[in-house]
Amino acid sequence: MFFTVYVASGLVAGGLLFEQVFDIRFGLGVTLTALVIVVYACLGGFLAVSMTHVMQGTLGDALDGKTPELLGMGARVGCADGQWSAGGSLGAVATISLQSAPDPGPRPDLRGL
To answer: Running DSSP on this structure, what letter comes out for residue 18?
Structure first.
């Protein structure tokens, strides 16, 4: 069920893209989107993406949460008397990210562009 909805949403998005950008009828845009997807899959594009995702997933599972330990980059951060203290090679990074950032000021209004 999910795959059907996922593919249908991609075809609808492609049809709307062609309709809005190239002023082509929606039905023709959906057909062109499907044609591009089929050609891409036949040329091996989908296989390459799938293989990349499998490799990334395998590495992610193997190294899940272990990367800082493997690199010896533990961070120890503490706060005493309102002052942050850092230990380990990543402690300074953790301390800086815990401090509040200055107010950047008002944002420009870009709605009229």
So the answer is: H
**Secondary structure (H, E, C), 54-70:** HHHHHHHHHCCCCHHHH
Q: What digits encode the pLDDT tens for the residues 9-18?
A: 999 999 999 9
State how far the Cα of 93 lies from the Cα of 87, in Å rounded to an integer: 10
Q: How far is CA 68 from CA 14, 74, 88, in A?
A: 41, 6, 11
Give the span between the Cα atoms of 58 and 63, in whole angstroms: 9
- The residue assigned the tokens 């594009």 is 45
DSSP state of 50: H
pLDDT digits (tens, 9 = 90+) for 22-50: 999 999 999 999 999 888 888 887 777 77
First to last CA, the chain: 41
The answer to whether 102 and 94 are in contact (CB under 8 A) is: no
